[in-house]
Specification:
Helix content: under 10%
Number of helices: 2
Largest sheet: 5 strands, antiparallel
Distance between the termini: 84 Å
Shape: elongated
Structural class: mainly beta
């Protein structure tokens, strides 16, 4: 609001001056009059040109040719100059003459967050922890560590959150040093926003709004919603509500901020978003919230009550469209190559799509006389002064600013540890180099330390004490020194007991499983875990167990593992390596299984079975569960053979439920079952994988 009033005052003064000059019959007002223009600049890769889009008229009203710009460049404007920002270069152009003036070197090779604000513009290099002010006076200010998304208040102050240390800092207008009046508690995550021109931390750990200023934190206000650490927060409010996107659940919450002024608070509004959790934004204007569904490549607008206003496809190739709020309270959405700009009305939420190249061609004949629309490519050499050709008498000075002094690296990101047997593997994300390459990472813990090269982002640590909690801290180093450390959560290495030797025997009374005591790897035995198909798991403290029922035992694989504990009861436990044995079949009992089932015409099926007779004549009985009133098919059987069965009332799509029993002089086998739709003929297999019950079906 303050900035808008200032603009109006300047324009009024200009108009008064023009009227006075016209009345006196004098020359029009001098061209040196400056005011902060509205609209948005965009770089069009196909035209190699920066275009100015006037959102009020949906027209392109200025252009500056800047050839040789790398993909992904963005354009930011100040009061008198514009800047084409690349990872490797910042090209400066004059907005009144529409000509390139010079090129500068950025402090880091990353795409910064741009802020078009009074006293700026600013470029915030989040990973490198650097803030560049392109306005007067120009400055590069180190923040000392990686940063979250910045926020800006109306007086031109930039507010920053150090994600490694938790410091909340202010860079006042025209200042060159940060002041950090507040500190976020360790373990808390959050994002910055501005409510009623006050900086506020959205604490996603405490789920609260926490205003702060030079005196520290003020009273917190509950959000009323549970937010993840990945929440995306708008930089300002729309209609008194703060938009927060939860990408993990594809939702947007509109949170009433009246509680910061101790006024009654309305319940949060929840909006279900389309897509799969990939969004750009949200960006808020006076009454509208805008975001981009990256999955569908669509611009979505909502009013402050959560009602959807529009859904507009972003033309061109899918990618990550860039959103920017203009001084005119409109949101400008650029597609990937800058060929299309979508202009969002900040009051109504309606969207107009502009083809930048076509709009520029339509305005070609309307350019002011003498305006320059082409220029030579900018240079980045040492300071020189050159004289253009005779048809262009402007003098262009090309400057290379001083290179920013290297500082110690920032903290490594996302340090995590995974415990093993007397070992751990620690992994981390690269630390911000802050002007000089990282030459080493140092990993330390209670009882030891190690170092790896600057290009390595993991370390395996052996010889750790099992059952003891370890926290690992990683510090990056470059030529300027060592930076701050970042630590993992505590992990406990646990020894894994070796496999016991397992033996299984069978008699008429049942089966017995015995095993030897394994190497417990320094742990205390809790029990042995004994597992067998068709039987409940057993927890045994000795080294033997008996099975008195043959069901699920004979022919099955029995597994034994030692479960160990490190420390007193309740301490972490570890599951040892498995020892196994096959429970033998008993005294010539047959064992059966299905190989497959196929149709042999309508109402007739053929089952292929495999029968282990143990050398004793065996009889098989095949029955269909769905026709239990019919007698089973009874045949002599041995080895792999086919048995035909009539199943009246079925067709080629019917499902059968077959049971195979086998018996000999020593007793009966464990029945085998088959359920599914038989194959259509010509093969032994069924349409579904057969299910064979009981341990007797395999040997």
């Amino acid at each position: 609001m303050t900035r808008t009033r200032a603009m109006i005052a300047v324009l009024v003064a200009a108009c008064v001056g023009v009227v006075g000059v016209a009345a006196a019959g004098q020359t029009p007002v001098a061209p040196g009059l400056q005011f902060f223009p509205v609209g948005h600049w965009v770089y069009n890769a196909a035209f190699q040109t920066a275009f100015h889009v006037d959102g009020s008229t949906n027209q392109v009203d200025a252009r500056v040719a800047v050839p040789g710009v790398e993909p992904g460049a963005q354009v930011v404007q100040g009061e008198r100059s514009g800047y084409v920002v690349e990872r490797s270069r910042i090209t400066v152009f004059d907005k009144s003459t529409l000509s390139v003036e010079n090129a500068q070197n950025p402090p880091a090779a990353e795409q910064p967050v741009v802020l078009e604000v009074a006293g700026g513009p600013y470029l915030v290099y989040r990973n490198a922890g650097q803030v560049v002010r392109l306005g007067d006076p120009a400055a590069t200010v180190p923040a000392g560590g990686p940063l979250s998304e910045p926020a800006v208040t109306g007086d031109g102050s930039v507010w920053l959150h150090r994600v490694d240390s938790g410091a909340l800092c202010e860079l006042p207008r025209e200042a060159e040093v940060l002041t950090c009046p507040a500190q976020v508690e360790p373990g808390h995550t959050g994002a910055l926003t501005v409510v009623d021109d006050r900086p506020v931390l959205v604490d996603t750990t405490a789920d609260a709004l926490r205003p702060f200023d030079q005196d520290g934190f003020g009273p917190s206000v509950p959000l009323g919603v549970d937010l993840p650490s990945t929440a995306q927060v708008a930089s300002t409010t729309a209609g008194g509500r703060l938009a927060v996107v939860d990408p993990d659940r594809a939702r947007m919450h509109l949170i009433d901020t009246a509680g910061l002024d101790k006024r009654p608070v309305a319940d949060p509004v929840e909006v279900t978003l389309p897509g799969t959790g990939r969004y750009s934004g949200p960006v808020a204007t006076a009454r509208v919230v805008t975001l981009v569904d990256q999955t569908r490549n669509e611009v979505l607008t909502y009013d402050s009550d959560g009602a959807r206003r529009s859904v507009t496809k972003v033309p061109g190739k899918a990618g990550s469209p860039r959103l920017a709020r203009g001084e005119d309270d409109r949101v400008y959405v650029e597609n990937q190559d800058g060929s299309q700009v979508l202009v969002v009305d900040g009051e109504k939420g309606s969207v107009v799509t502009m083809d930048v190249g076509k709009a520029a061609d339509d305005r070609t004949d309307e350019r002011p006389t003498g305006a320059t629309t082409t220029t030579a490519a900018p240079e980045t050499t040492t300071p020189t002064t050159t004289t253009p050709p005779a048809d262009d008498r402007r003098i262009t000075t090309r400057l290379t600013p001083p290179v920013a002094r290297a500082t110690a690296p920032g903290a490594p990101g996302d340090v995590a540890a995974e415990a093993g047997d007397a070992s751990a593997t620690v992994r981390w994300d690269p630390a911000p180099p802050n002007g000089a390459p990282v030459t080493a990472y140092h990993v330390s813990w209670d009882g030891g330390s190690t170092s790896v090269g600057g290009g390595t982002h993991s370390a395996r640590l052996d010889g750790l004490a099992n059952g003891v909690a370890h926290v690992f801290t990683v510090v990056a180093e470059n030529e300027a020194g060592r930076g701050p450390g970042a630590s993992s959560a505590a992990v406990v290495p646990l020894g894994v007991a070796t496999a016991p030797d397992v033996t299984a025997t069978t008699t008429f009374g049942g089966s017995t499983v015995t095993w030897t005591e394994p190497d417990l790897r320094g742990g205390t035995l809790v029990h042995y875990l004994v597992q067998m198909p068709g039987q409940p798991d057993r927890q045994v403290t000795g080294t033997t167990t008996d099975y008195t029922s043959f069901t699920g035992a004979l022919g099955s694989l029995v597994t034994v593992r030692a479960v160990t504990r490190y420390g007193p009861p309740g301490s972490p436990t570890s599951l040892g390596h498995p020892g196994t044995a096959v429970v033998p079949t008993l005294l010539g009992l047959p064992a059966v299984k299905f190989v497959g089932v196929r149709w042999a015409g309508t109402g007739r099926a053929i089952a292929t079975v495999d029968v282990n007779t143990s050398g004793v004549p065996t009889t098989c009985e095949l029955s269909n569960f769905n026709l239990d009133n019919r007698p089973p098919v009874k045949v002599a059987c041995a080895g792999v053979q086919e048995i035909a069965i009539d199943v009246p009332g079925t067709n080629q799509t019917s499902s059968l439920d077959l049971t195979l029993n086998a018996s000999n002089a020593n007793g009966s086998a464990q029945p085998a079952t088959w359920r599914g739709v038989p194959a259509s003929g010509g093969g032994a297999g069924g349409a579904r994988r057969p299910r064979t019950s009981g341990g007797m079906a395999a040997w």
